[in-house]
Amino acid sequence: MAPAQLGLFRALCIKGCGIGRAAEAGCCRAMSSAERPKRPLSAYFRFLRDNQPAFRQQNPELNSLELVKKLAGVWRELPASQKQVYEEARKTDWRKYEEQLAAYKAQLTPAQAAALKEERRKRLAKRRSFRIKRELTVLGKPKRPRSGFNIFVSENFQQSKGLSPTAKLKQLFETWQNLSSSQKQPYLQLAQDDKVRYQNEMKSWEAKMVELGREDLIRSREQRPKKKTDTAQEGSKASLRESLAKLKLKKSEE
Questions:
Q1: Where are the beta strands (DSSP E) in the chain?
Q2: Which of these, 33, 35, 29, lies nearest to 2 by C-alpha position?
Q3: Closest CA to 183 of 145, 147, 149
Q4: Element housing 7 (H / E)
Q5: Distances (CA, A) of 125 to 16, 132, 163
Q6: How many whole angstroms separate alpha carbon 35 and alpha carbon 30?
Q7: C-alpha distances out from residue 147 to 58, 102, 233, 242, Å
Q8: Among the listed residues 132, 180, 133, 174, the one whose alpha carbon sits nearest the alpha carbon of residue 153
Q9: DNA-binding region(s): which residue ranges (predicted)?
Q10: With contact defined as beta carbons under 8 Å apart, do 119 and 33 qualify?
Q11: CB half-sphere exposure, 21, CA atoms < 13 A
Q12: Is it the case that residue 51 has pLDDT exceeding 60?
């Protein structure tokens, strides 16, 4: 969409949604996000795109993951001169991308720019959270303990009534609410046992993380090694306290 067309579309959005920055941002946000230029592929991903169909035809027995691993091995062995062809194509597309991105940002209103910035922040936070969870899984972090209700649900979900998972959960929640204390007790005891299991496993896991130098992953700050006090900083603080004490003494003598 040309800049003039984008301006006309934005004006129509404002007219249709109502005057004001909030209305403009809400109405045109989808348009702005959709029109943003796409980042060009890296040299490696260009190689994958160009060669995957032929490799798949030559290796029909391989699944997608195995095929990508095979292509990655071929890329590693590829001469620098052949890799340079893909790198030059990336540079050319990158220059076009920068020009398109500058034109795109220039036609955004302040409200749209703010909305897109917030959208990007949330997207990056979601990616960061996913990476952290994946890393914790690889490092073998113990699973959190289950509640009595969670255990009750896992044992009774299949035979519970309901056409959908949501309906089943709702029915099980109502059943749980109507159970007597004695009926809930076995599940609560299992939950307590699971809590003890989690605490013991976490102690061992956190001790291992300290050994690996990953104190950032443990729960309690008290378990982290205390940082050494900066001697120079402590010396300056002591000198300041001494000067204040002398000043107070001088004033009292006056």
A1: none
A2: 35
A3: 149
A4: helix 3-17
A5: 33, 11, 35
A6: 9
A7: 52, 52, 48, 56
A8: 174
A9: 37-105, 142-206
A10: yes
A11: 8
A12: yes
Is 217 within 8 Å of 136 (Cβ atoms)? Answer: yes
CA 91 – CA 98 distance, rounded (Å):
11
Q: Is 16 exposed, middle or buried (0-12, 13-18, 19+ CB in 10 A)?
A: exposed
Q: Which one has a higher pLDDT value, 11 or 216?
A: 216
The b-or-e profile of 129-140 (16+ CB within 10 A means b, else e) is eeeeeeeeeeee
8 A C-beta contact, residue 140 and residue 209: no
**φ/ψ bin of 226: left (φ > 0), alpha (ψ from -120 to 50), beta (otherwise):** beta
Long-range contact pairs involving 18-26 (C-beta distance under 8 Å, separation at least 24): 21/109, 21/110, 21/111, 22/111, 24/109, 24/111, 24/112, 25/109, 25/111, 25/112, 25/114, 25/115
Distance CA 140, CA 112 (A): 42
Confidence (pTM): 0.50
Predicted pLDDT at 9:
41
Q: What is the DSSP code (8-state) at residue 18?
A: -
For the segment 149-165, what is each residue's pLDDT rounded down to a tens digit? 999 999 999 888 777 88
Count of beta carbons in the 10 Å neighbourhood of residue 24: 21
Backbone angles phi, psi at 224, to 5 degrees: -80, 145
Helices (H) and strands (E) in the chain, counts: 10, 0
